Amino acid sequence: MAASIPHFSLLRNYAATTARAFVTVKVKPSYTISSTTLLHLPSRSRRLQFYASASNNEEAAARAAAANADSGAPTIFDKIIAKEIPSSIVYEDEKVLAFRDIDPQAPVHVLVIPKFRDGLTQLGKAEARHGEILGQLLYAAKIVAEKEGILDGFRVVINNGSDACQSVYHLHLHVLGGRQMKWPPG
Ligand code: AMP
């Protein structure tokens, strides 16, 4: 295999006490892989390549979103709150709306948002006066976890700013569960 992909260095480490072999493929950062080459790579390498590509897209999208973060412009979530575009609502009360993420990262992936943004484009904009709604959002996350049957294990995530890949500037909590979560997160 090494002969057919000369631009990759293959390190094979054979565990001394077991028959299992571990193969690590180092990819040169600037090297572009053709789809034909990709087909000959081990599946883990393909996953790494797709992951690198996906995360680059997310980072670019996050940087673009951050450029308009403080414009006060409505976001896609305003349309969801106004029911101008459809969403799959899991929980709703006077102050909070929870709906399924359109691009789920776990079997359960629900977004919890304040109906009135009130300057909370991101958690980093929180002021003391936001204490009540922040508590309500967190409590709503627990209600969502209960309704979804994941109370025994779920994760609540807030991406704040472009370094954290925030893409929508209306504060939202991600409630994730239904599978084993890993730590540290990516
Ligand atoms: P973040 O990247 O933390 O700002 O999260 C924004 C989330 O909003 C992403 O997980 C998107 O998949 C999700 N999202 C964007 N548009 C919609 C939509 N129309 N309905 C549901 N979720 C959405």
From TrEMBL:
A GO molecular function held by the record: adenylylsulfatase activity
Active site per the UniProt annotation: 172
UniProt name for this protein: HIT domain-containing protein
Annotated motif Histidine triad motif, positions: 170-174
CDD domains assigned to the protein according to its UniProt record, in alphabetical order: PKCI_related (cd01276)
Alphabetical list of PANTHER family matching this protein: HISTIDINE TRIAD HIT PROTEIN
Database matches in InterPro entries: Histidine_triad_CS, Histidine_triad_HIT, HIT-like, HIT-like_sf
Residues annotated as domain HIT: 76-186
Organism of this sequence: Quercus lobata
Alphabetized Pfam families for the sequence: HIT
